[in-house]
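Question thread 4412

I'm putting together a teaching handout and wanted feedback from people who do this every day. The idea is simple: show students a protein as raw sequence, then show them the structure tokens that encode its fold, then repeat with a second protein so they can compare. Below is the first pair exactly as I plan to print it.
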Amino acid sequence: MRLAAGLLFLFLLADVPEPRIVYFTNVRDVAVTQADRQNFFAVDPELWAHSRGDLGDLRLYAGDISVQYSLSEERAGTSSEDTEAKILNLGSVGGHTEFDLDTQALPEYDRIKLRLDAHDFVVKASVWGGDEPRATRVELPSSTLYDFTKEQLGSNSTVKLPTASFRYLHVQLSPGIAPEQVKGASISNLRERKASWTRAGECGTPQQKGRRTEIACRIPPRVPLNRILFRVDAQQVNFRRYVTIEDSKSQQLAGGEISRVRVNRAGTLVNDEQLALDLNLANADTSGMTVVIDNGDNPPLAVNSVEPLSLERRVYFDPQGKTALKLYYGDEKLSAPIYDYARFFHVDASAAEAKLGAGEHNSQYTGRPDERPWSDKHPAVLWAAMIVAVLALTAIALRGLRTKS
């Protein structure tokens, strides 16, 4: 049984196409800026246009020696420890709801999330920290909490703080929230890493068609589209619009909302905006897409520009002292590499950016040998042989009939 499994593994392994420089259609020079450390370069439209869709046919070479690499998506990252905080001394002082939070369960934190049974409010949350519930406290930055259910402009019940480790927090809410409306609280330590984006094409000038604002966009072939960024005139505030992405046949590919809130209630300013639409269009045709903003019965948005963006992909590698490498790509039959470097990869904070040269046709390219069966290579000969065989069988059958007659 083991022998059979081993033979099957060897057969499958032998069937995996091997990379060879003569099998790649394209090549680019890679200039290493600092050869003594980790380097990287970003995937650009040239690579998307002439590589496999999953970029699995990228190969780095130093002469004839393969250089291992790791392909990384520069996504936004968050890691968060989230735990319930015990509410103490909840009550009202001079019209202000006040309470203490016991943060013993989490050594460090930078967020307080309140569960409030309230709608249509704007309040200021002031926070102090200390190691005893009623000891001298350190004042921390305040936050504005709001709920605009009536206006359909969203809500926020999170207090943002610099990273703190006080055992107790004292929270005071400005008038607008009663003590009985405070249902609970949690604290968290949020660590964020911003995503990196690259331009994924171009969008034209907005055109008004009734209640719709339409923006035609052109996305190069194979370039993934992960985000649409809207730039709306700063003077236009307090709006919320539904946005759809349509393909060249007016079929909807995706949808979402953009908004900007700037409200002053009783001296408390709420300022928040969401002008980016994140997308997941893995296999959609976005080459002739249109961005559509539904204005409803409201005036059209003053859209200055619409920018299609792609999540940046980077190729990280260790040049091992080499200052010049070559990047080969354009082999559809090649499988994605399996490197130990990628398995144990981590981003070096001091990684240097390598420079990519222009894409060129590989002068050594010969193409892979034709590995199809003989019958697939010579279908005409096969059909001719089959026709001859049918004719021969027909002649034999006719001769047999005549003999019987």
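The second pair follows. I'd like the answer to focus on this one:
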Amino acid sequence: MIPKLGMSASGPTLLRRMRTRSCPAPASVRILGIDDWSWKKGMTYGTILVDLEVHKPIEILPDRSSETAEAWLRIHPEVELVSRDRGGEYAAAAKKGAPQAQQVADRFHLLQNLRERLKEVMDRKHTSLPEIEERPSDAIPAKARGMKEQGSLQMRDALTAPEQEKHYRTNSVYPNKRSEGTKYDDFQKQVRREKRIALYEDVCTLVEQGLSHRAIARKLKLARATVSNFAQAQAYPETHHPKRGERKSILDPYKGYVLHRWQQGCTNGAQLYDEIKARGYLGSEALLRMFLAELRKKHQEAGSASVLILNAGTQLLEIPPSLPPKPHITRRMSATRASWLFVSQAGKLNEKQKQHIRQMIAGHPDLARAYELSQSFVMMLAEHRGTDLDIWLTQAERSGLPEFKKMARGIRLDYAAVKAAFSSLWSQGQVEAQVNCLKLQKRIVFGRANFDLLRLRVLCRV
């Protein structure tokens, strides 16, 4: 019973009535869009077929295999054009099931492929990307910095302070160059490993500066577990498991100062906590008191503060001649951000973004060649100049960049569909919109969404 709707019928009865309804197959379809949709993301996928002329889905298939799509296309010989992404399954299905149809690769996916190759170039030349300087306030919440009572005006002044002059490293002309006989995949694994080592070194540097794991994770955009593993490791790789007592502490940079004040006769925990907090300590008072309790115990055993310095902690602590400076955080622009700048049209960027591009181009000749090739490809798509594709492919193959050689090789394998994308009026935009509608229908019937019911809701919706 459904009393709220005034219906004397149960839910299963309504579902049975819905399943008795049939959706007639389309009489004919000339322009077809095909794409996959996730029944369970990362595990199970289906296929959606859209008539691009009438802006309507005409069929959904239970999987995304080429055999299933090919079988559907064989019973529709009237199809004249198939719009698809760069996936090989649908390309093979269209070639076998609809050999008479022209295939068109989606322009958005072509740009996506370009950005993927650019990200690989940026990862390989990560040290040539511009450094972005940020203050500790950008990563650490105001409450954690003891700024709870500061007014909004003070916070605004701190955020609008003038930026300091940026500095960029000078690198070798040919770092990370692939040696003869090295496979492309092995080369990329080596590049990714070097990037992880650089992240490990950045984490260690920020830990030494006294930042908390939470602040480091927010700053470097890493998981807190990864930061914790890096901070505890004595050397790369991060899978190193430190022995008991070897873990680093946020108090480590300030232990030398605490020992120095202890020698001078200051043993008050509250006073020491206020002093190191004023010098940038972000940890808790309880952590300091635990360290002081260990100092008192060792002081009683040793009998003098000089011996205490040698025995406190897991390693020798040297008293610094001056107080440690407040953390100065620098990080490099991410490969994702840098690749977006490379594929953006120069007229749509502001002066700061253009300056970043100039710095990257001047930082390494590989980045200069990658920018030139990227802009040429983007402008060809924007101006529909498919006649220049062959020239671009030749330039990419002779560029000396393995990432662009890989892209050129992939385009040649799908040459006809890619070239048609430069001049065709059809794209996957409608199909992506229909996939979003399908996701909504899937969530509406969550818990009762067998494939047959979902298919009826998608194809027969008003």
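Top answer:
Good format. For the second protein you could add a caption like this: DSSP finds 20 helices and seven strands in the chain. The chain has four domains: 27-106+427-459, 108-117+333-421, 133-232, 252-311.
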